[in-house]
Amino acid sequence: MKRRLALATTAVAMASALFMSAPAFAQSGGTIKVGVLHSLSGTMAISETVLKDVALMAFDEINAKGGVMGKKIEAVVVDPASNWPLFAEKAKQLITQDKVAAVFGCWTSVSRKSVLPVFEETNSLLFYPVQYEGEELSKNVFYTGAAPNQQAIPAVEYLMSKDGGSAKRWVLLGTDYVYPRTTNKILRAFLKSKGVAEADIMEEYTPFGHSDYQSIIAKIKKFAAEGKKTAVVSTINGDSNVPFYKELGNQGLKATDVPVVAFSVGEEELRGVDTKPLVGHLAAWNYFMSIKSPANTEFVKKWSDYAKAKGIPGHKDKPLTNDPMEATYLGIMMWKQAVEKAKSTDTDKVIAAMAGQTYPAPGGFMSTMDKANHHLHKPVFIGEIKADGQFNVVWKTKGPVVADPWSDYIPENKGKANVPAKK
Q: In a 3-state reduction of DSSP, which class is residue 344?
């Protein structure tokens, strides 16, 4: 009798211990918690808020079809408020307190760099949906945006070509942080490999939230007046794009004179700008809303219906999709497939199951997660701004491009493997 009582007590204790250590989704009615880590206020809210919304749309879509492994997704949304150290605090909260199975978030590279140690130390998963500068490869991150060879390099090659205007002089203009500076380091090396002289490269940076571009546009006009065909490569991020493009129009800097190609301006950033004076200026992305494909027609309709049903500000009247929205959606759908393939939300099992995942991308190609380097194979499109704020695709690759996270144009990258090191 005593032995039976002891065994029963031990069983209760073990069950209690298992319950206390079980992940949150096992304790909350069969849900799987996931984190959404995007700035809903501050300078980056103009770009990031809609990524939160499209993530919630994807979760709702998955839940309506039965969830993940029969469990509903429960989203935990936090606002790091365009405050880079706060990103790390919020990431830690999502992982250690909310016990999320994965996090979808960040836009700027400084925010991603801020959270990276948190994900690596806790062996957790981040899905990062925005183009970036490369020069990083983490076991704990899946990069669903573009590496430089999937956006920046093709854009500059296009502007150097006859079709792109045969540019000879270059203005590298960006927000002052890691993504623009590293991208421009790569572009400088690329341009010099093509015989461009130092005197034909101008480099300028402005802080986050900068709003007065009058003197910088005047400086660009002066630089461009020195004879050779000039192009501007813009890595300006966040709400500074609105005053930049307004000043471009105010000073009459037309695409026929000095074309601007942007890497962080899409349909959403142009919403608050009079685009008529900007017709012909360019953006390089891996997706545009204007792309014609059955998958994109479906994606745009899903978003339009969702935005109207939820009354999302701006989008309920004028629904827009863009590249980081597509990358967010693809990351979520591939994570769902990987969890079901692994039959687990365990980080290492999901990482293994993510290798080679595919999904029909709205951009018109089958999107594939590289089996080794945690990046998507992505097509590259260059679009001209139209008067209605949409983009007309003027150039595209023949198919998806394999990412090269460690740029060949950085000498110190020689010999670096494009495979994440295991921690």
A: coil
CA distances (Å), origin 411, targets 26, 190, 196, 285, 357: 49, 11, 18, 26, 32
Percent of the chain with pLDDT over 70: 92
Stated pTM of the model: 0.90
Q: Mean of the per-residue pLDDT values for the chain?
A: 91
Residue 383, strand partner residues: 283, 393
In which band, very low, low, confident or very high, does the pLDDT at 191 lie, cut at 50, 70 and 90? very high
For 165-299, where are the E strands, in sequence order?
169-175, 201-206, 230-235, 260-262, 282-285
Please tell me whether residue 53 adopts helix, strand or coil conformation.
helix
User: Comparing 25-39, 275-289, 295-309, 316-330, which segment has the lowest mean pLDDT?
Assistant: 25-39
- The encoded tokens of residue 313 equal 């500000």
| pLDDT tier for residue 6 given thresholds of 50, 70 and 90 | very low
Torsions phi, psi for 364 (to 5 deg): 105, -5
Give the E-state strand segments of 250-363 in sequence order: 260-262, 282-285, 358-360
* Measured distance CA(329)–CA(304) in Å, rounded: 14
Distances (CA, A) of 135 to 176, 185, 254: 17, 11, 34
CB atoms within 10 A of CB 217: 20
Judge contact between 381 and 334, C-beta under 8 A. Answer: no
Could you write out the DSSP letters of every residue in 111-142?
HHHHHHHHHHHTT--EEE-S--------TTEE
CA atoms within 13 A on the CB side of 217: 20
Order the strands of the 358-360 sheet from edge to edge: 358-360, 366-369, 376-377
- Spatial separation of the C-alpha atoms in residues 219 and 242, rounded to whole Å: 19
10 Å Cβ neighbour count for 10? 10
- The yes-or-no verdict on residue 5 having pLDDT over 70 is no
- Check: CB of residue 359 under 8 Å from CB of residue 337: yes
Distance CA 159, CA 190 (A): 13
Structure tokens at 35: 């984190």
Rg for the chain (alpha carbons), in Å? 23
